Amino acid sequence: MSSTILLVKNMVCNRCAMVVENILKKSEIPFQKVIIGEIHLQEAISVEKKLLLKKLLEEVGFELIDTHASGQIEKIKKFVIKKARNEVDEKDQKRNLSEYLSAHMNHEYTYLSSLFSSIEGRTIEKFFIEQRIEKAKELLVYGQHTLSQIAFELEYSSVAHLSSQFKKTTGLTPSFFKSVGASKRKSLDKV
C-alpha cells in the first residue's frame, strides 16, 4: 500500500466521503480524491497533521486504520457492501461472494474468511446477509418496490428466501417492517 493512501473505518457511503473531504479541506491537507474507505493524499503528511486528521475523523465517527489486518477488513467490508447492494458490474454479479472477494482482494477466500471472523467476531456471510437485509429495508421503506422486485434486485432465489432471512435477521416479517417504517433501519456503519 502506498504511503499516500490512508484507510478510514466506518466510511460507507458517498456522504461519508464528502464529510471527509470537508475535514481535509478545513485542515489544509492536500488530497487527490476521497472514495469510500480511502483517502488518496497528494503526498505523505507530517505526524502532527496525521494526529489532527485522526482526531477530527473520530469526532464524526470515523477512524484511521493503522494496521494491515484492519485495512484488509475494511477492504473486505467495502467489497461485501457493494456486492450485497448489487452495485457491481455484470461480471461480478455472476460471481458468488467467495469468488468475487478472492478476485478483488487477491487472496484465497479461506484466508479472508478466517481473518474477518477473527477480528469481527462474525462471518463474512453473516455480514453479507446483514447488508442485503439493510438494502431490503431501505427499499421497503421507500415503498416503490414489491417484495418480489426486491428479491429479484437483491438476487434472492425466491421471495420466501428473502422473507426467511429478513425474519431471522430482524425478528420481523417484511410486511410488518414496512408498516413500522424507517424507525427500524440502521445506518450502514452500525451493521
Summarize this entry quickly.
Helix content is 60%, strand content 9%.
**Helix count, per DSSP?**
10
Could you name the CATH topology of the largest domain? Arc Repressor Mutant, subunit A
- Give the N-terminus to C-terminus distance in angstroms: 27 Å
How would you name the CATH homologous superfamily of the largest domain?
Answer: Homeodomain-like
Biggest β-sheet: count, sense, barrel? Answer: 4 strands, antiparallel
Beta-strand content bin:
5-15%
Contiguous runs where pLDDT drops below 50 for at least 5 residues: none
What does this molecule look like?
The chain is an alpha+beta fold and 191 residues long. The chain folds into three domains: 5-66, Alpha-Beta Plaits (2-Layer Sandwich), CATH 3.30.70; 69-125; 127-190, Arc Repressor Mutant, subunit A, CATH 1.10.10.60. It is 60% helix and 9% strand. The chain has ten helices and four strands, in the order E-H-E-E-H-E-H-H-H-H-H-H-H-H. It has helices at 14-26, 47-59, 68-84, 90-94, 97-105, 109-120, 124-142, 147-153, 159-170, 174-180; strands spanning 5-9, 31-35, 38-41, 63-65. Helix 3 crosses helix 5 and helix 3 (68-84) packs across helix 7 (124-142). It is globular and about 55 Å long. The two termini are 27 Å apart. The mean pLDDT is 88.
